Amino acid sequence: MNIEKALIVDEPWISKILSGAKTWEMRSTSAKQRGWIGLIKKGSGHVVGVAKMTGVDGPLSDQKMIDNSDKHHIPSDIFLAGKFSKHRYAWIMSGAVRLRRPVPYRHKSGAVIWVALDQNVSDALAQDEAVKALA
Questions:
Q1: Residue 102 sits in which domain range?
Q2: What CATH number does residue 87 fall under?
Q3: Distance of alpha carbon 126 from alpha carbon 128, whole angstroms
């Protein structure tokens, strides 16, 4: 498995994704990325997990957000009050696992959502026991 890109995700969302409880990462735009991606805990300097990005749905109506709160974990009173009002695209993920050992990466200037991973980071991810179990 060769993982070349990683998504930056803040707490508490990344922990929910890695636990398998959250399968929709809500964003303000659509995305073309599909397949296995790294998951970076915002501000940590490390790839802490991997997940398979399977698709995108959106923009989602208030009702669709309410109906799928079990997938995105944003309380309805929060998004109905206007917080997360731009975050109406569900980036759909499956198979998320936490790495046995977080892998440091070099954060390139300007990387806010996606990080292109160096080959040595991709190689380290492929060698992680949790990732090997997915193959």
A1: 5-132
A2: 2.30.130.30
A3: 6
The answer to whether 30 touches 89, Cβ cutoff 8 Å, is yes
How many domains is the chain partitioned into structurally? 1
8 Å CB contact between 94 and 23:
yes
**Residues 6+ away with beta carbon under 8 Å from 101:** 128
Residue 79 confidence (pLDDT) above 90: no
Q: How long a stretch of residues is the chain?
A: 135
The string of pLDDT tens digits covering residues 87-101 is: 999 999 999 999 999
For residue 106, report the phi and psi dihedrals to the nearest 5 degrees: -95, 120
What are φ and ψ of residue 68, in 5° steps? -120, 25
Residue 103: pLDDT over 90: yes
